Structures
1.
Amino acid sequence: MRIQIFSITTLTAALLIAACTDLEPNVYSDITMDALMADAQQSSGYMLSPVYGQMRWFNEDRSVWDLYELGTDAWVIPINTDGGWNDNGIWQRLNKHQWLVTDPHFSEVWNHLWYGITSCCNRVLYQLETAGVELDERTIAEIKVARAHYYYHLLSFFGNVPIETEFNVPDGYFPQTHSRKEVYDFVVKEIRDNMDKLSEERTYSRFNKWGAKHMLARIYLNAESWLGPVYASKRDSTIILCDEIINSGKYSLDGSFSHVFSLENNTSPEVIFAIPYDESLGAHPILHCIYTKTMHYQGKPIYNASSAGYNGLRANPSFVEEVFDAQESPVTHNLIPGTDKDRRYQATYLMGQQYNYVTGDSLFFDAAKKIPYNHINYIASPTGAEEFDGYRFGKYEIKIGQKWETDQDWVMYRYAETLMMKAECLLREGKKDDAAEIVNFVRDRSFDRNLPASERTLSGEQLAGTITVDGIPVRYGEFLNELGREFAGEGMRREQLIRFGVYTKGTWWGHSASSKDYLELYPIPADERISNPKLAQNDGYPN
Amino acid sequence: MRTKLTLSLILILLSAAASAQTTVHGIVKDSSGSPLPGVGIIEKGTTHGVISGIDGSYDITVASAQSRLEFSCLGMKTRTETIEGRSVINVILEDDAIGLEEVISIGYGSVKKEEITTSVARVKADSFVKGGVSSPLSLLQGKVAGLGMSTTSGDPGASPSISFRGISTLAASSSPLIVIDGIAGGSISSIAPEDIESIDVLKDGSAAAIYGTRGTNGVIIINTRQASGGRFEMQYDAYAKYDMLEGDHDRLTAAQWREKMSHPDIYPGMQDYGADTDWVKAISRNPFSHNHYLSARGSMGASGYVASANYSDKQGIYKTSFDKSLALKLGIKHSMADGKLKLDFNLHDRIVKHGYCPDELYNDASLRNPTMPLYNEDGSYFQTNNQSPLCALNEWRGINKNNSLSTSGKLSYEPLSYLTLSATGAFQSYFDNSEWWGTHKTYSAIYGGEMGSATIGSSHTEDYTLDLQADWAKSIADHNISLTAGYSYNRYISQTFSMKAYDLPVDGFGVWNIAPAGSTLDGLSTLKSSKWERRLAGFYGRANYNWRNRYLLMASLRIEGSSKFGENNRWGIFPAVSAGWRISNEDFMKDVSWINELKLRAGYGVTGTEPSNAYSYIALYNFNNSYMSYVDGQWVNGIIPSNNPNPNLKWEEKHEANIGLDFSMLDNRIHGSIDAYYRHTKDLLYNYTVPTPPNISSSILANVGSIMNKGIELDLNADIIRSNDLSLSLGGNISFNSNRLLKLSNDLYTLEYLKLGNLTHVQTYSHRLEEGWPIGNFYAWRQLGLKGNGTSWRIKGAENSTAGEDQKTVVGNGIPKVFAGFHLDARWKGLDFSISFHGAFMYQILNQYRMMYETLAWLQTHNIPKKAYEKIGDYYNYAPSTYCDYYIENGDYAKLDNITAGYTFTTSEGSLIRSIRAYVTGKNLLTFTRYSGMDPEAVSITGLTPGIDGLNKYPTIRSITAGVNITF
């Protein structure tokens, strides 16, 4: 008996001791931190890829592009008659400048930009350093300039934001708001300290010396409107930076305006920095505004496309009418043929009757062929847009066989803007004829040279004068219009309107002037302020 | 000398053996006098033996008249007889004691029903829901107080959604732990409903705590048919089932459509396409299903076996939807070494072929213009702006084939009468292969880019369990003590892959030749694969103490670790204690003869919940092509963090107190129980918004909130008539639950409230949850009628302006506060009759169909509900679909869910067929409700967004079943 009990006890004990308590799980389909660190040298290329990859998010629906263009006189997303694009009124509020601190655009943009800074730049720098991967000076400089690029958009949209350069922060750490001035100083210093360490060769989709200088020039150009009249002094710096790019000889104007936005724009001599997309490799997120956001949902036959659009984004009718030198019939709202001397008019919009790419037949909305597929420069109402109301974003070449995934490369910084930034500074410095010379140099390719000079050039007087834009007298108004013609839809309009004092005082289709200057900054997203009590709300918004 | 003696001894023995060889015969019977076949009769001390025949007779030749015979049969007490010269030995074997009294599974063991101290409900096979069920869990519908169940889909393979004593978690799953034949985490899909003998439901925390980490949502213990001793028994069950739609939208026919068209001033823009089509009829049918079940069990000496096969062929309401399955079961028990060593082996395997269609077919069909023809003149589908449901039905096809295998073996050794050591190993595997493809005729092929598409995927899970356990039980005077200690290890591995190709060169391959697809040739076909695992290890112990069957005490403890937590928080401690007082066994109750049983119970227990993601605490990185970039002429993939890890993640803990009373009185004619519980879940897992920066992404899983549930459950049964020819019994249960979110924020993580439930079509959320609120509050505008000629709603608080968030308020709650079930069973001679009802009360439903389409805004494009053509107040409703209280309705319902009538034919003694019963069952025959939607029960009542009547759901069915049960 005793032996039996003993043996049972031993057996039981043996079983329990043998009992496995190994609870370290295998990780099969992810990379653990250890594996990442061990392979860091080898995979540093993959780790650095998001530094630029994240920038494709800028053109996702409800992202950076929307905040630069949809609160302006150039573009609008009305509510369709079938209720589409109502979305609780967020698009209406953008156009009317009646946004709420809770509107999803702000948190989306905030998250995308901060993800670029914290995860794609700060983290990668920290982890590669921790793993003992030595990055060369140029690569580190490039990451810092790319990070400054994310900060630049925060500076432009939200102004007063945290400044974070470290990934490894203690638990419970809450970043605090820095003033717009501090953020500006930080961004300028980052670019200045690093730009000359970058490559001088053309790099297209990466920041080189010239891309960095172009970005800094744009920041200086806007500084006065962000921080006050004393920053008018930065015009000199802008001109110097632009001249450096011009004198580098690396870039020149493309002979064709359309080629800059074509499927082959990687060959354009004008592109300084682009964000490439690819329909299979860089497929997600997509370049939304050029096709899906704007194309009608029956638009596939036009390009023999495999995907149609969501019928949202439309050109603001008042902008098309006012800015471009062309005439639309007051009855049909279609272009009166021959009245458009500026080639950029047709190169910017998808307009008029559309045709089946394969058969050449006219397209109709309905089976009875009563409603032609014809985009007109007219929108019935901000809350009741008919099927084909409004011109569409047509600046980028659409591929025959276009997919939902986009194959086009987004032009972020281009040489024409370098020239125009210089022209704007010269104009504001009183050198109107020097400015006109540059403006006409850029305009030249967009006009038939057989036209009389008066129809294709602008004089210094014209550019320097005060004209009515968006219902108010605007100094240098013609220059503002010229910016509108050249850069429509390129994500610059909001800054242009703010620089020329039109943003809160102008009136355009669907929008009345608010004259509330605080609207020149977007609100800090409400959700962020709930989770981080150290974030201050921008002036004017409910706290 | 010594040699001589040895030799002579051998000689003597040899001669004795030779001379004493003798024959014995006889008949073995059980205690009721029935002959027992298959009884093993062994001459003790040898390996020589025979087995009794079909009539219980045996015939054995043994070495000597002094030999001893051992009669053993599974499920019977082994008996030893010394021959003592007899030539005829008739033996009566008694049932093994354990078989006599009803025992209830309590997890890693069982106890006699009257000794239970926790809240456990048993449902036996004869009480199951009758007439063909789509999932074994549906057998419990309306049978257990506190178990809320809704069947949200009429798909022939659908599972019900279950809520148990309310909702006590936010992010984790609310489905209960399934234990099959002692294997925790059993795969319900591997068993046939007919194989289930009884289901025990561990309701309260003190009962479930032995399962520690997985017991929070209750434990459902399924006991399948086991090998048993006794004579061979074969059973054949078959039924045929005929279904129809349970409800239908009240919509216009083509003629009515044209009538409305004649008032274009009120109803503008309606189109007449000239046909007269019933779209619902075009895609649906009255399906016919049949089901066969054959099982056999018997014993061969110390071995017993059970084997069964179930074949089921079910059609769905949608014309191409079906569910076919074959379930096999094999169980073997063997007893060795004088019954000290026992082997128990079980195998379940179920193979399913499931044909599925898009769930939204019904909704699409019911909303389609009835004047549209099915086909164009050229035979192609008539479809202009959107897909024809007929095209979707015929040209999109999905098939899922799966195989659920569940196998277990248990070896137990009883070295001493009071000690049992056992080791159980179990392996479960689930393999599925799903196919989904569209032809060249689909809407997207004609109007879109993909000329045919094919998606094929597969998933495989493996689940390994090892349980080692020691049970010790002893009675010392009036003290009855039993102790259990054990160790359990579980490993779960899940792996999946899928491939998608499009632009198929021809139709007809389905998914089975994707190599020549255009997308494959272009390198655009997609491939995905992933794999993860989870490990659990636990040590558990339990003590039961019972003094004179009056005072009962149970205490248990489980210490469990999970690989889903970091090292610091990996192990959790889950104690439980419960006590019972059998008042009826007290001396002072001796004279109270009308009370047969009265027991007061109280218990307290802690259970845990782990996050659903296996790696939430580990920082993980992965490739993500959303972050690819184009570097120096090449696309380079990006590695980014794939989660926002929280190394401090820990167990979500539920603390539950339960008090209950079991009673039985008037000669056991009235019996039942009443339970009250209070459960408090703390450290609730939920995804919190964290600031970016410094966090890299804005959401993290953290333990923050707490939630409270309390309720009362009553179960009452009455046997009103109990005579040989006539019996009548009634039974019912009712449960009340209320819950409240106590806390949602702490110092680190803050949420003011949760916006839950995305109503995509009206682009807002449906529910809101704040501290102090119950889960499931609908948060919407209150309307005061239409305004602006009916173009918009007048919203309370914004009568003359545009309504916004500030005007929203709580307009209802989607969780039933009361569930009830009632049944009546009657028998008169061979005739049996039963009827059952169940219902849910005191809650609201958002009728999404009305919210979306009960407005003339959709007049031109949809066949909207008839009610939309009527005025609301002074106006016709032209307003866009709006989420407001107008569409929140009371959901209360009572369902006549089952009527069964059967007749059992008597058979003569000794005939091959022992009994035949034929029956007819009607299911879901009648619903008493004021809810205007199709079926209030089809609305999900679980999760954080309960009470939303989904638009795109597979409609539920009413059915008539006819069947036979034959026992051989």
Note: DSSP finds 21 helices and eleven strands in chain A.
2.
Amino acid sequence: MKEELREALEACYRAEYGSLLAGLLRRCAGDFELAEAALSDAFTTALERWSESGLPDRPGAWIRTVADRRLTDRLRQPREERLEEASAAPQPELPLEHDLVIPPEHFPHEDDRLRLVFTCCHPALSQDAQVALTLNALLGLRAAEIARAFLVREVTLSQRLVRAKRKVRAAAIPYRLPPRELFAERLGAVLRIVYLVFNEGYVATFGERLTRGELCDEGLRLARLLKELLPEDPEVEGLLALLLLLDSRRNARVGEDEQLVLLSDQDRSLWNTDSIAEGCRLLRQAMGRGRPGSYQLQAAIASMHAVAPDWEATDWHTIVDLYDGLMKLQPSPVVALNRAVAVAMDEGPQKGLDLVEEIVSGGQLENYLYLHSTRADFLRQLNRKPEARAAYLRALELADNALERRFLSGRLSQLEDA
Amino acid sequence: MRYLLLIYSNESDDAKLTPEENAQLMADYGAFHQALEGAGKHIDGARLRPTDVATTVRVRNGDLAMTDGPFAETKEHLGGFYMIEAENLDEATQWASKIPTAHTGSIEVRPIWEDEDM
């Protein structure tokens, strides 16, 4: 019974933490410490009370009511005493199947979580702080879990969270939906953070494992949540579509012995067809809104791969066109590099190499592993062995991830054998 | 809420301004000041003389030590400030972005530690 209770409580925590916290934050103008204290009171009370009298019908609503009251209690205290243990005054008896006696103005608002998203991803917070705060406040991930996922020390991550929450209050980062003139820019920052969480899981930049699936899952959860909160935004749909399409390859990307398997060599029967179908459906829906954007374009590129029978039979010409569109919207050397790969498939490695050399002579991406490994691949295909070798070695110097290093060493020894 | 907007700029670049550029800058500052006052957000503000006339004071073990110059050798120095009233950080940073030298230097936005925060 005890175990069952804990599970129910944990499930409630996972599912409702963000919306519970968001509602409380609205009542105390974004004071995270206070809202968290009230919520933590409520979860503690729940464990005690439910152990005695069993699970209520609606655990989430029960906790919301208790947390709301605890916040009221704490707000009645003078400011300096609000966070003290004693401020959580003894609870009046709370009936198990109570009528929901939250004052109407404390009812959850539809926009609460959206406010929370925009606050967590405010540009006055560092990107690391935005990521940590979003995962913690919106998804209820604890500091230890986030620290483990990002391979940083728990104390570092805890301090990052404390500092971010303090700044929200002390600098008065507004707990609100951004006004119209800031909305697009701020939404861009939110989408970037969601993509970053997913991508950090997808391409673990350091460590022994190539992917950290739990971060991909959290990134997807965030993207789904955004889609729920902003159901008609084409870039939100585009982002969710992109993540689903990338994630569909998860099982095919890592081979035996934890080896990185490139898209060109993946066993496509391992791709998740449900994710592909959902991604393509969302993408069509987004494109139908007639407001193209960079996530939609990236999703469109991913969808071209998703429907291709194999690497060679991929519609490279269309992919090059999509990259052209992306370069117009969001020109960057990384996009130019990916475009070069598609051009090489469409028109041969020499064309690809020419484009890469252009990026090199622009002096950009000097320390970018994939620039050197891509250049090395083209040189290898053109049978320019010594140059290919030097380029692989340069890429190897830049690889932080053990699997990437193994992969590049493999390429290098193939080159020697050939 | 009150915020202090600290205006940092490169003094050697400032010194290189032509008289015309300097006049333009002063006019831009005048316009900014007026906008701030007009919106009822201006509390205080001043332009500082360059760091070549700064003096730094430290008291250690009861002894007063004075050094000629600013407390830190950096490229950008504090050249002036505004204290403003703003609803929240978004409003404060909006005002900061309108300070003429935000285009060449940097504006640090610092919330004031109010009594009720203690």
Note: Residues 10 and 76 of chain B are 5 Å apart (CA to CA).
